[in-house]
From TrEMBL:
The chain crosses the membrane at residues 12-30, 68-87, 99-121, 190-210, 222-241. The keyword Nucleus does not apply. Pfam families: BPD_transp_1. This is ABC transporter permease. PANTHER family: ABC TRANSPORTER PERMEASE PROTEIN HI_0355-RELATED, ALKANE SULFONATE ABC TRANSPORTER-RELATED, MEMBRANE SUBUNIT. The lineage of its organism: Bacteria, Pseudomonadati, Pseudomonadota, Alphaproteobacteria, Hyphomicrobiales.
Length: 256
């Protein structure tokens, strides 16, 4: 615990300092250029909007957070299972892998309305959208890790007459976990996009819903307040997952 906690706190402190510097640049730009508030509000106006709409924003943030978490869980489970299937079955590798690659050519904005029709305006369509967004990074990273097991270790497994399942469980999966960790870090950063895109297309709650309606009423300060919460949520998730991965897969950590 103590081995990874200081590194995580250090990364969080650097992110906080960067955010403060960007806010200072934003404040100076507004003070110097004096844009209209409906074009670019200053940090003070955004913080006021955040304070005045705190309960409204919090309720919608919890909806988006639930969609992200459930989408992450589902996408991780399906992605790891698919990677194991593709890595262990030649038939699946020949027939499933090309479909996975082609599926990435589909723009998410094109399929989002269909998901709303199929799964409704509730959480279902947003969870599916988030799952689709993170599915490929998890599958691709884990499958690539499974393919790159050290040949020397595989030779030792053959000499020990290890079965295919034992080789997979004791060698390939542990060897591929750092690659899976990298895929999960990418997935966590991309997951909020899936939830918000789903909310933009059709929703009755969530930060995407708040941004859409605030933008229609030219409440740009409220749009920025929702974006600020979304950014903080994404950062919190990323640092939490990064710390958990450093704890569970210590050999996957990189020096910062």
């Amino acid at each position: 615990m103590t081995a990874f906690l200081p590194a995580s706190l250090s990364s969080f402190a650097r992110a906080l300092i960067t955010a403060l510097v960007l806010m200072a640049v934003w404040y100076l730009a507004v003070e110097l250029l004096q844009p209209a508030p409906f074009i670019l509000p200053g940090p003070g106006r955004v913080l006021t909007a955040l304070q005045e709409n705190a309960s409204y924003l919090l309720a919608n943030a919890l909806t988006t957070f639930s969609e992200i978490l459930l989408g992450l869980l589902l996408g991780t489970l399906i992605g790891t299972a698919t990677a194991l299937l593709v890595a262990t079955s030649g038939f699946a590798r020949r027939w499933v892998l090309p479909v996975l690659v082609m599926s990435q050519a589909l723009p998410v904005f094109a399929i989002a309305p269909l998901l709303v029709v199929w799964f409704g305006y509730g959480l279902g369509s947003k969870i599916v959208m988030t799952t689709i967004i993170i599915f490929f990074p998890v599958t691709s990273a884990f499958q690539d890790g499974l393919r790159r097991t050290d040949e020397g270790l595989l030779d030792l497994a053959r000499l020990a007459r290890a079965s295919r399942f034992q080789t997979l469980r004791l060698l390939k999966v542990p060897y591929a976990l750092p690659a899976l960790a990298s895929g999960l870090r990418v997935a966590v950063a991309a997951a909020p996009i899936g939830a918000v895109v789903g909310e933009w297309v059709g929703a009755s709650a969530g930060l995407g819903y708040v941004m859409l309606h605030a933008n229609a009423r030219s409440q740009v300060d409220l749009v920025f307040a929702a974006l600020l919460i979304l950014g903080l949520m994404a950062a919190l998730l990323w640092f939490t997952v990064d710390a958990l991965l450093a704890r569970l897969i210590p050999w996957s950590s990189t020096k910062s």
